[in-house]
Amino acid sequence: MTTQALLNTYARSDVRFVRGDGPYLYDDSARRYLDAICGIGVTSLGHAHPALNAALADQAALLWLAGNGSRVPNQARLAQRLCELAEMDGAFFCNSGAEATECAFKLARLHGHQRGMASPKIVVMQNAFHGRTLACLSATDSAKVQAGFGPLVEGFLRVPFNDLDALAALRERDDIAAVLLECVQGEGGIVIASRDYLHGVRALCDQHSWLMMVDEVQSGFCKTGSWFAYQHFGVSPDVVPLAKALGNGFPIGACLARGAAAELFKPGKHGSTFGGSPLACAVGSKVLELLESSACNARAVQQGERVAAHLRQITAGRADVLAVRHLGLMVGVEFDRDMGWLKDHALAHGLLLNVTRERVMRLLPPLILDEPQLTELCEKLSAVLA
After folding, report:
1. Distance between CA atoms of 266 and 304, rounded to whole angstroms?
2. Do residues 72 and 118 share a domain?
3. Is the pLDDT confidence value at 2 over 70?
4. d(CA 325, CA 312)
5. Which end of the chain is more exposed for a tag (fewer CB within 10 A), N or C?
């Protein structure tokens, strides 16, 4: 099969997946692989879930898209449930995490302009990743992914992550509208914020009328053992971009807001042709229902502890392993050298994982693993890292 008609945007392996079933993918030779990266945190309920297949097919037989010029009952129901789970007041639906984050940027700028700022600034973090649109790329801290795309979008100030003093040093500025961060930096190598830091950010935002915006695109929907990672730390953000696992592979994103931030948009200020379609929202609602009925938060905590403990055991005493980090089933193993080759090495063992920041092996396993499958995952990790 030729790939010559595709733009050269991915460093693809030679494997060709043709079928999925639960936590497994199958290639065109019928070889089975345990999927421990889930499309980078997307298919948390596994592949070809029968209840999701049915929800998609049932809605597809009724209505795909009617546009946002009229009421969309599926959209209203999903928005209500998301806001209940996240303790937010309103939702805007789009198609991806990058779009959800772009929506957050627009809310931040509107907030700044309403406070009289001619050029509102958004504080972002070192080691962060927020997407690949020009604004998201500008907020991302990676010279590698930014290379060749300048000039970048203005309006971002970067400070060290998990460093409250660095953020507090900006408090005398009169042009800051918002602070954007991840509680768990996924692309950054599973780097986890401290509770004191997040509470300090919340306090600074309250003191200076900055919006606290928490990117939950990768960490949302039970991966960490709570619906959203910020709930582990007892903080309440003002704006929350979401996507990935919300559709379990069907494209859907959302930007949630609360309080004054939820009142910023007026008709005509933002929109999306496909965002919040009846089809996407039917899938999203079924995903939330399945995550809740399967007790996925508790599973993520228990299984994450087991996987992390196993990794610590099999890497104990290895000078090349610097750390094993995890929150729920977001798991990273940091090495002291480039480990880019590890992805293909794992494929040879029938395991899908990936490497981020060149040195961190990242796992984002599905939340549906039974006991034999969890054992299989640990055995494959032992073989890969032997």
Report:
1. 42
2. yes
3. no
4. 9
5. N
Tell me phi and psi for residue 18, to 5 degrees: -125, -10
CATH number of the domain within which 363 lies? 3.90.1150.10
Structural domain containing residue 344: 17-49+295-385
Question: Could you tell me if 323 and 333 are in contact, meaning their C-beta atoms sit under 8 angstroms apart?
Answer: yes
Same domain flag for 159 and 236: yes
Q: Is the pLDDT of residue 1 over 80?
A: no
| The predicted structure's pLDDT at residue 52 | 98
Of residues 263, 261, 292, 285, the one with CA closest to residue 367: 292
In tens, the pLDDT along 200-222 reads 999 999 999 999 999 999 999 99
Q: Given this model, what pLDDT does residue 4 score?
A: 82
Q: Which residues contact 19 (CB under 8 A, 6 or more apart)?
A: 25, 26, 47, 48
Q: Chain-wide mean pLDDT for the chain?
A: 97
What tens digit of pLDDT does each residue of 3-17 get?
689 999 988 889 999
Domain's final residue, options 293, 322, 347: 293
210: left (phi over 0), alpha (psi -120 to 50) or beta: beta
Across 32-40, average pLDDT: 98
Domain check: are 268 and 168 in the same one? yes
Q: Are residues 370 and 285 in the same domain?
A: no
CA neighbor of 50 nearest in space, from 370, 368, 373, 374:
368
Cα–Cα distance between 105 and 169 in angstroms, integer? 22
Sign of the CA dihedral running 28, 370, 217, 279: positive
